[in-house]
Each structure stands twice: as C-alpha cells, then as structure tokens.
Amino acid sequence: MITIPYLTALTTYFSYGLLFAFGQLRDFFRRIFDWWSQSNLQDCFNRPISSPPDAWFDVVERISNDNNKTLKRTTRVNRCLNLGSYNYLGFAAADEYCTPRVIECLKKFSASTCSTRIDGGTTTLHAELEECVANFVGKPAAIVFGMGYVTNSAILPVLMGKGSLIISDSLNHNSIVNGARGSGATIRVFQHNTPSHLDKVLREQIADGQPRTHRPWKKIMVVVEGIYSMEGELCKLPEIISVCKKYKAYVYLDEAHSIGAVGKTGRGVCELLGVDTADVDIMMGTFTKSFGSCGGYITGSKELIQYLKYTCPAHLYATSISPPAAQQIISSIKVVLGEDGSSRGAQKLARIRENSNFFRSELQKMGFEVLGDNDSPVMPIMLYNPAKIPAFSRECLKRSVAVVTVAFPATPLLLARARICISAAHSREDLVKALEVLSTVGDMVGIKYFPAEPKKQQLEGDRVKLE
Amino acid sequence: MDAMLSSFESMVKSASDWVAFALDAPSSRAVVFGVPIRGHLLVEGLLLVVILFLLSQKSYKPPKRPLTKKEIDELCDEWVPEPLIPAITEEMKYEPPVLESAAGTHTIINGKEVVNFTSANYLGLVGDEKLQDSCTKALEKYGVGSCGPRGFYGTIDVHLDCEARIAKFLGTSDSILYSYGLSTMFSTIPAFCKKGDVVVVDEGVHWGIQNGLHLSRSTIIYFKHNDMKSLQSILENATHDNKRAKKLRRYIVVESVYQNSGQIAPLDEIIRLKEKYRFRVILDESNSIGVLGSTGRGLTEHCKVPIEKVDIVTAAMGHALATEGGFCTGSARVIDHQRLSSSGYVFSASLPPYLASVAITAVNVLEENPNLITKLKENIVTLHKGLSDVEGLEIASDPQSPIVFLRLKKSLGSFKAELQVLEDIANHVLKEYSIFIATSKRSTADKCKLPAGIRFYVSAAHTESDLAKACESLKKATAFVLAGQ
Ligand SMILES: Cc1ncc(COP(=O)(O)O)c(C=O)c1O
Questions:
Q1: So what's the pLDDT on residue A346?
Q2: pLDDT at A186
Q3: Does the B106-116+370-483 domain belong in CATH 3.90.1150.10?
Q4: Contact, B380 vs B122, CB < 8 A?
C-alpha cells in the first residue's frame, strides 16, 4: 500500500485540476468561436460560384432569413475579380490547347474507368501521364492518384511504420498530418521552416533512439512543403537538405502549391532554389492548382515507384484518375514546356512571376502586413482581429473583388488573415483594380499596420534574393 | 513535470498578485497582536511557503548525465537507416494490363477486344450518351478542375445541385460531396468517432474504413465477417460489463456489399441490434447504390429499412454512377457537422464540376430506366449460376451481389500462395479467352484477413453471350492451371 503525504496529494490534485481547467477553457473558447463564426462568418466562406474559377468569375449571391444561420442561393450573380482560387497558371478556364483535347479524350475514354489502377483502371492515357509527370518533375518515375489529399495520406503509411520517425514542419498541411498519423510512426515537429531547429531535433532523436526502448530508429523522414499555402513562404530547401544529408534522413517534399507556379520553366521550388532533384527522395505534388485539374503524384526512383505500385492502398483500392482530368494535366504540362508549339507556357510563367512580385510590392508599399517571399504567388495579408474578417471580406465583395479569409482553427487564434492567390490569368488592369479596392477597404477596416512608405521595398528587397 | 511545476508557479504568482491587490485596499489592514499585518505581506508569506515547498520537492527525472557533444556526434555518425523501401522482388514487378479504350464492358487490351469484368460499371453507364453529353457541356462551361477547396470559392453550383439530387434520390435531408471515393470513409469516420468512443466493425471492411478508424483513435472492436451472432455478443459485452460504455458514443461500421468478399450485410438484423444496444450505424453503400433494391436505392431499400434508421450513409461514386468522388448522406445535422470538421472535405480541392454533373445525369438515368436494374439483376443471377460449378473454386459472395467473388476450394495456407494461383488463372483467361477479370490484391497496409479471390464485376451491359463465355472460359482456365499445380 502506497501512502501519499497529504500535501503531495493536494498539489497533485491541484495540478490535475489546472490541466483539466485549461482543457475545458480551450474547448470553451473553441465552442464560443465556432458559435461566433457560425453566425458572423457564415457568408464569408463556401460562397458558391457559377462559372469556372478564372481571373473573373460569377459569385452567386446568397440571402439569409435567419440572421446568417442558413443561407439560400439566389439566381443573381456578382461578376468578381478572383483573388482566391489556386489558378496559378490560368488553366482553370477553357484553354485553346487543352479543352479540345480533353473533350476528345472524354469521347475515347469516358469520364471514369470505374476500376482501380491495379485491376482494370490503367489505360494508355495513365501510362502516358506518369511518364509525362516524371519527365516534367525531373525524376525517373512517377505514380498518380485521383486526389492530392489521398496521395499524402496513403503514401506515408506505406513507407513509414512502427519504429520509424517522421519529422514534420509545424505548419504542414492536414493531409500530411493525417498520413503521418495513419502510418503509426513516431511524429516529431520542428519549428516552421527553421533548419537549425530541424538539426537540433534530428540530433536529439538519433541520440535518444526510440522512446522507452532506446533502440535506434529504423528510418527517419523529414516532410516539408515547397510553398506554405497559409504563409506564402518558400521552403528553405537547400539548408534543409544539407541537414538531412548530414543525418541520413529521407526528404519528402510536398510541392502542391509550387509545382508549375515557380521556377524558370515551372518545375517548382527545386528549380527556383537550385536544388538537384536527386537530393529529394520523394517529391509529391498536386494537379489541382497550377494545372487546373485534379489529383496528385509521387515521383522518385524507379524502385520506389515500383514498390508503391505494388502496395500503395490508393493504387490498389481507389478508382483511377478520371481520363479527362489526366488529359488536362498532360496538355497543360505540354503548354508549360512549349511542346504545343507556342510560347504561351513561357509567357504564363513570366506573367505569374511579374504579377506576384508587382502585387506583393504594391501591397507592401500601401502599408499592409504581407507575409511570404518574393516570387511566391500566395500572399497572406494579416488582419489579426477576427472581427475584421467579415468586414474585410464583405467590403471587398461589395466592390467585386473576391478574397479568401482564413481564421482559427486553420491559423492561430490571433493570426487571422486574408489570402491572395495571384494568377497568370490576371491582367495588369485587374491587379491595379484589385489594389485600389484592397487599399480602400484596408483603410476602412484599419489593417494597414505599417506606415505607407515607398522605400520600405528596398529594405525587404535585400532580405529575399532569389533568382 | 518541470513544465507543469513552472506553470503552477506562475499561476500562483498571478493569482497572488490579484489577491494582493484586493487586500491592499485600506480597509483590509489589520493589527494582530499589536503587529500591523498588511494584506500583501500575508500573501507574500504564503507564496514563499508554496515556493519553498515546490523547491524542496524532488524532481521526478532520474539524475542523468547528458551526453556530450562528441558522444552525440558519434551516435549520429554510427546510425545507419534502413533503406526507404525493401528490396524489389519479382512479385512487386507486376504490371496490370493497359486498356487502349474506355473501360466499358468491351475494351481493348494489346490490340485485342476483351470482355471486361474488372469495372464496377454496374449499370453500364460508362460511355452512355447522356452522360457523355452532360460531361462535355460541363467541361465547356466550367473547365476541368475547381482550383480550390469548397470553403474558398471551390463550391460550384453543380456541387450544390448534385448534393440536392442525391439527397432527393435517397430520401435524406442533405448530402455532402467528397472529391474522391477513398477519402469519403476515412474523412467521415474521424469526423464523428473520437478518442474513447467505441466502434464495432466487421473484420472484412476495406482499407478506407480501416484507415478512418485508425485516424479516429476510437476503441475498435472487430466482429467476425458478416456474422450477426458475433456482432450481438460483442455488442452485449461492450455494453454490459462496462457501465461507462453507456455514456460513450458507440458506432457500428459495416459495408453493404463487401469489396473483400461480395457478402451482403443483413441490415434489418443490424438495425434491430443497434436499436437494442443503442449504437449508431455507419454504412458504406459504395457497391449497392444503383444495384440493390427494386429501384437501385441501395441496401436500405433491399432490406426494407427506412433510410432514417441508418445514421450515416457513405458511398463512392466510381461504381454504378460511372463518375468519381464520393458522398455522405443523412440528416442535416450529420452533414453540416462534416462541412466544418471533415478533413478530406475542408482541406482538399472540391470535386471537378464535370464529375458532379455526370453524377446528376447518372442518377437521372437510373431513375428513368428501372429496366437497367432488372437487367443487372438477371445478369447477376446468370453469372452466379454459371460460376457455381467451377471445379476447384467456390463462390464466396451473396447470390444477389454484383461482385461475384470466387476463392479456392482448397486452402493453400497463405494469402500469397492462393493469390498467385488465382493470378495465374486470371492471366490465362485473359490471354487465351479474352476475358478480363481481376484478383483481390492486398496492400501491406491492409489488415483484412479474408482469403484471396477472383472478382467478377457484373454489369447490366454484359450480354448473355459475354456471361456464357466468361463461365466457360473460367472453367477451362481453372482446370488448366490447377492441373499444372
Ligand atoms: C500542401 C498541400 N498538400 C496537399 C493538398 C491536397 O491536395 P488536393 O486539394 O488535390 O486534395 C493541398 C491542398 O490544399 C496542399 O496545400
């Protein structure tokens, strides 16, 4: 029988009480926030559209008879400038090269194979797509899936398992988090985009080994993203790779937002930052963004892809990617590479870069607090105060500019933001109009946290130097 | 522990500051035994005692000499990771046949026309003219992708129309679209089942469900495949000896037609048990929508159970509806909850609009042509009968299942060995008789333990001669392969 001193018992109870109270408090705040956002933010999200998500699109107006609890669609639409969709290269709308080929492909292969890749869902088109993607990304082989989310969450469980370690950036996408959890591997997190902290975590973990038994780890994988979609930041890939090499950890790079969008020929962050793709063990990406389609890919060594094709659940159990979507990817990659016989691809790439850098620098000049790096087409504008979310979003929409606002729980409670995604489809006039509107609304809502100063750009300029 | 202590300390400090402030008011000054005691002195004294006490407590960490930098360097140098993937063996080099045309009931492989039994194209809607039409129109109007998640301008009017159409067809109040069939289950389950909840699940469920359960971190109890006695005894145990269980949320997860065996779940019995033991039911209708029931409304219609009795219904649309993606349907509360907290819905780009448009058309076609269901049912009966006397194989599936699942009569002891034999049979049928069938391959991540088999996906578009030829060929091929064993 163990006897506990009275005081110890008391303090122990007290500690538990505190923990419990904090937990409850957090849930309580979350509930309050959910309730608040339900009644105040409802109309800022899930806005339906009735056209392709091109540079301009039709936002369907909604009305509410019960104070924003439920919203009804009307037949009225509002033609808005689209600053929200991930249409980086402008392939979302009908395209003179892609669309006829997609429709041709539909006639030949129909909308679905109704079968998995391993059974009867592999057509010549799928084989062509994988070759095309591997070639574009710059790796020996590729495997494609019908959804980006599933790509992450079905691959990690195959590669990692008990006794292995996944070290994940603290701001990684939910699909990576779920994939890591599903794998059963131990998960550690390193500070967002901080190679020195990654170094520290790796050292500690290798020295400590597995929890309790202290056996050495079987293998270690570091998972990072190319462009962080809520931050607009580029991954510090060269530094992270050199850390991983030092400690023999495998590198998994999710290029969902960077493939096609950055780099001289659109090949993503590796090209932009001068990293040899051979140094990245697993390169993942999605087709929902730059290529205006759906699905995701993994590229890597021939053996890796062979192994994944043998055992990855998404290859064995999921319907293969829809043929028209596959054709859209093939055609858009051809455009990007100039294999369509025009220079449209190169123009698109130049355009998105100019557009992004122009827009970012103008926003900064106006005094907005803009996150992210140069060349990145994603630029969050900090709002901080959650009360500013509906105001900002509605006022922009009133002026026919559609922006995305992001709040808790997708971001920390204090860091609510609006997120702009620039597209190659935006013309200079579009951007100028958007800037006017954002500036007016920014003044109204009071989110120009910095003084407007034209010289500030130069200070920012030498911080980020990427070519 | 240290962190807790320090947070405790800081809490005490801030609390005492507050008390001190209150006590500092002039009225709180008191004189005890001639010594004036000011409020804050008292509090500080108390605080001192607490701090001294905390300091005197032994840290629970065993005293440990930290490793030196050199030692860590050595450890890091010595550490050798396993290779990322195991060595590639011969079986990993399997390449599936490549189709040179649409995956209809007749397709082309290696330049030769074959009869296709690998597509879950139950109603024969692959290549259907109406579907092709609506698909072309949608592609022209909306382009291919939606370029964003539903929350951020990825909601297109066809998505809302499709959700409403499915709800109307199935008689539920609302439904929600997912962009991929596989993600439907593994997003829906963790949206409802949480840590500590009890989930009773069939041991034969597919990987999507297994993964969803794993992510939910619920307590999972498996019952014997499609065995209601086993289910009942587990429900009994889970609720009886455990008083706490009464307060937990409890779920039963089943598939209507099991991908891994072709068995059909007896829903009426499950509903009876669920009501008796007060569980909720999550039902995967992927292989039964458009197949079971007199009008194709799935297992609920088949078992004459009102759909309201099933709490959550999910389905992949890459089967009878001949499109892609998936949906979940049920009460408005069930759906609204997912719109806020289902990870595959919130964090992924929405279903390409043309696929939603195909889904709407497919439901319309299904409703307007009840004869498709009749034809499918006839075909199922014919094939089931024709395959029931293949020497060396036995049918594991239900006579009404659109998946006719055959396994080896004589067990070979291991999944791998059985799969290899079945694989040989499938290859032989394809090569010699131009009948395209598939075996039930299994991922290393899959925990299902059911035996391997050959699957025939029956379609309403298969002709009588297709079916006859399939039965004939399978018999010959099986005899050939088994004789060589
Ligand atoms: C980093 C990252 N990975 C994966 C995904 C998922 O891709 P998909 O939308 O194609 O499912 C996203 C999408 O937002 C993403 O940002």
A1: 92
A2: 93
A3: yes
A4: no
pLDDT at position B18, please? 61
Mean pLDDT of B43-68: 74
**Residue A178 touches chain B, beta carbons under 8 Å:** yes
Hey, are the CB atoms on A120 and B99 less than 8 Å from each other? yes
Between B85, B152, B340, which is nearest A307 by CB? B85
Identical topology for domains A41-95+343-381+402-446 and A98-337: no
Q: Does the B129-368 domain belong in CATH 3.90.550.10?
A: no
Q: What is the model's pTM?
A: 0.85
Question: Is pLDDT larger for residue A414 or for residue B470?
Answer: B470
Atom of ligand 1 at shortest range from CA of A288: 10
Contact between residue B202 and residue B258 where contact means Cβ atoms under 8 Å apart: yes
- Ligand 1 touching residue B146 (CB < 6 A): no
The parts of chain A modelled with pLDDT lower than 70 are 1-5, 8, 12, 30, 33-40, 409, 452-467
What CATH class is the domain A98-337? Answer: alpha beta
**What φ, ψ does residue B479 adopt, rounded to 5°?**
-60, -45
A56 lines ligand 1 (CB under 6 A): no
Instruction: Inform me whether the C-beta atom of residue A311 falls under 8 Å from chain B C-beta atoms.
Output: yes
Quote the radius of gyration of chain B (alpha carbons, Å): 31
Q: Does A23 touch chain B (CB under 8 A)?
A: no
Contact A73 B152 (CB under 8 A): no
d(CA B337, CA B345): 11
B contacts of A323 (beta carbons < 8 Å): 102
Query: What pLDDT was estimated at residue B28?
Result: 47
Find out whether B192 and B282 touch, Cβ atoms under 8 Å: yes
Per the CB < 8 A criterion, the answer to whether B127 and A109 are in contact is: no
A431, A359 Cβ separation under 8 angstroms: yes
- Taking alpha carbons only, the member of B289, B297, B345 closest to residue B319 is B289
The mean pLDDT value of chain B amounts to: 87
Query: How many angstroms separate the CA atoms of B441 and B412, rounded?
Result: 16
B10: confidence class by pLDDT, cuts 50, 70, 90? low
Question: Rounded to whole angstroms, how far apart are CA atoms A305 and A451?
Answer: 52
Put residue A292 in one of left, alpha, beta given phi > 0 → left and psi -120 to 50 → alpha.
left
Q: How far is the CA of B182 from the centre of ligand 1 (A)?
A: 15
Domain boundaries, chain A: 1-36, 41-95+343-381+402-446, 98-337
Q: What class has domain A41-95+343-381+402-446?
A: alpha beta
Task: Tell me if chain A has a CB within 8 Å of the CB of B1.
Answer: no
Average pLDDT of span B352-380: 93
Pocket lining: A296 vs ligand 1, CB cutoff 6 Å: yes
Contact at 8 Å (CB) between B383 and B420? no
Note the pLDDT of residue B13.
Answer: 63
Nearest residue to B84 (alpha-carbon basis) of A218, A211, A276, A298: A218
- Ligand 1 atom at minimum distance from A176 CA: 3
Measure the CA–CA gap between B414 and B411, rounded to whole angstroms: 8
A114, A259, A304, A406: best to mutate for the B interface, most B CBs within 10 A? A114
Domain borders along chain B are 2-56, 106-116+370-483, 129-368
